[in-house]
Amino acid sequence: MAQFFLENQSLIYIVILSILLGIEVISNVPAILHTPLMSGANAIHGVVIIGAIIVMGHAPADDYLALTLGFLAVLLGTLNVVGGFVVTNRMLEMFKKKKG
After folding, report:
1. If phi over 0 gives left and psi between -120 and 50 gives alpha, with beta otherwise, what is residue 34?
2. Confidence of residue 100 (pLDDT cuts 50, 70, 90)
């Protein structure tokens, strides 16, 4: 285990710094912009779906763990994308002029 950390030390530092930077950026976003940014980010998660489909396509037929995780990733990624579009649609409806 220690060997893994020593071999990938620079990558681990990059991940830790990315997490800290992401927390700092997100904490400074005003509340009024948080929902539009999150709905857009959820819609972009289609990349997760494509990656999960690729993983499932390359997994051997007897590797049930990879197939199950790939299926869950496709399912949860799809829910995230649909949720992002629903939230974005609701926000856009707020800006339309009311009839009557």
Report:
1. alpha
2. low
